[in-house]
Design goal:
This protein is an alpha+beta fold. It folds into 3 domains: about 290 residues, no CATH class; about 100 residues, no CATH class; about 60 residues, Arc Repressor Mutant, subunit A (Orthogonal Bundle). The chain contains 16 helices and 16 strands. The strands form 4 sheets. The chain has a 9-stranded mixed sheet. Strands 5-4-15 form a 3-stranded antiparallel sheet, with no helix packed on it. The longest helix has 20 residues. It is elongated. The structure holds zinc ion (ZN).
Length: about 475
């Protein structure tokens, strides 16, 4: 990828604009539902189709979600703000302008901590989404014969979160986007699905000589729809720009498109400046006056965020940073974990169960913890039953867990039904242990000679004979006793 020469010669400067689709029931300026996968042009009305003479009415929930996001990112909430018209002429924008916010965004000046580094947030503003063009027709080589337009997405509420140019590598950019996505999902304002386009990243990349304070000319990369593509797009763009600079050329400010298949960026259009959009205040909407009491109310709904949990888990539950990272990534998982611990399960054991076999099951069945049938009470019971010695670890994993996850049956009922209780009775186990020792004279000889590894073989044999129900601790003890 990037040559080492370029890497030492240039410093990379990256800023990211994230468009997040808000999880409201209806669109930003009309009552049409926000609903993915509906038949084309069914969720539309005269307002979102841009018919003459209609008036937009602002959805209050959009403002609440924007404020909530701003509060979580430490922004100042602008109490007096307004909407502006941004002029575009694209077929997917029926009004020929987009209602957005220009010089008075709802949130200003926040920050996001990414792996211990603070990335500044320039602003957050609200705007409406455009429709979707579907390029159809048969002439693949020379492009489509014609295009279809679906206005269902038109008027879907968006917030645009603009970072300061504080990011310095492709990996840091990916981590920034991942951290931001995690927060948006914790706040329950956006589902963060990059593949479906509900979170879209535009990435500004420029290079400057190492040690310089003056930023180079930047290019904006669009159409980056996975975290992997964030890294790939930036790396190829760094390579492209450094080759131009190395050969004495100049970077042209433009918007470039990332092509998933070739892994290259291609020129899309020369970058518009603000004046190209001919912004002016939206005359059909009154300016917003936001009351402090409403901001306070929204503040109450901001949950404990992943970075706060990351600080707390190692202290409260003695978990490693790696375990903490996995558990706090998703809010449902984190809250599930906390519930299990509150119910009396050992924190480390609960973490191991969730990160290990339960996550494996969820992945295999393409589901998540909230949609599994196992309640926190059941997982806590399972862990406590193992601790009490009612069942052993293996039986819990192989015979009980999957059934609880898939059917929601109680662990204790499964144990009763299947007769899975651990055998701890020494009398009952002693005869099995004796039998196993006697029928394997060769291994017994080795064990007596001090080859401790052979002990595992005998424990395994006893487990097999007992249908996996023997208590390994008791079996180990009995073997030691019988050898004396
Ligand atoms: Zn509508």
């Amino acid at each position: 990828m990037t040559s080492t020469i370029s890497k030492t010669k240039y410093e990379v400067v990256i800023g990211i604009e994230v468009h997040a689709q808000l999880k409201t029931k209806t669109k930003i300026f009309c009552n049409c539902p926000v609903d993915f996968g509906a038949d084309p042009n069914t969720n539309v009305c005269p307002v979102c189709l841009g018919m003459p003479g209609v008036l937009p009415v602002l959805n209050k929930q959009v403002v609440a979600f924007a404020i909530k996001t701003g509060l979580a990112l430490g922004c100042e909430i602008t109490k007096h703000c307004k909407f502006d018209r941004k002029q575009y002429f694209y077929p997917d924008l029926p009004k020929n302008y987009q209602i957005s916010q220009y010089d008075q965004p709802i949130c200003k000046g926040g920050h996001l901590e990414v792996n211990g580094k603070v990335v500044g947030i320039e602003r957050i503003h609200m705007e409406e989404d455009a429709g979707k063009l579907v390029h159809a027709g048969s002439d693949r080589l020379h492009g489509s014969d014609y295009s279809l337009v679906d206005y269902n997405r038109t008027g879907t509420p968006l917030i645009e979160i603009v970072s300061k140019p504080d990011i310095r590598s492709a990996e840091e950019a990916r981590d920034y986007a991942q951290t931001l996505r995690s927060i948006l999902r914790y706040l329950d304002v956006c589902d963060g699905n990059l593949e479906e386009g509900s979170m879209r990243c535009d990435i500004n990349v420029s290079l400057m000589p190492v040690g310089s304070k003056i930023y180079g000319t930047r290019c904006e990369i669009k159409n980056v729809n996975s975290f992997r593509s964030v890294v790939r797009a930036i790396e190829t763009e760094i390579e492209r720009q450094s080759e131009i600079l190395d050969s004495g050329g100049k970077i042209v400010q433009e918007t470039r498109l990332f092509e998933e298949n070739s892994g290259k960026t291609i020129s899309m259009r020369s970058k518009e400046e603000a004046h190209d959009y001919r912004y002016f205040p939206e005359p059909d909407l009154v300016p917003l006056e936001i009351a402090q009491s409403w901001i306070n109310e929204i503040k109450e709904t901001v949950p404990e965020l992943p970075h706060q949990k990351k600080l707390r888990y190692p202290k409260d539950y003695s978990l490693s940073t790696d375990d903490t990272k996995i558990l706090t990534e998703d809010r449902n998982m984190a809250e599930y974990y906390e519930a299990v611990v509150r119910l009396g399960a050992n924190p480390k054991k609960a973490a191991n169960w969730l990160i290990g076999p339960i996550t494996a099951y969820l992945k295999e069945h393409r589901t998540d913890i909230i949609n599994s049938h196992m309640t926190p009470v059941q997982l806590a019971d399972l862990i406590i039953l193992i601790e009490k010695g009612t069942i052993n670890d293996n039986i819990a994993k192989s015979e009980i867990l999957e059934e609880v996850l898939s059917t929601g049956a109680n662990p204790e009922e499964i144990i009763k039904q299947k007769g899975l209780s651990q055998i701890t009775d020494e009398g009952e186990l002693k005869s099995i242990v004796k039998g196993v020792l006697e029928s394997n004279p060769e291994q017994l000889k080795q064990l007596k000679e001090g080859k401790d590894k052979v002990k595992g073989f005998f424990v395994g044999q006893v487990m097999k004979k007992s249908g996996g129900k023997a208590s390994p601790a008791v079996v180990n003890k009995l073997i030691d006793e019988l050898l004396k």
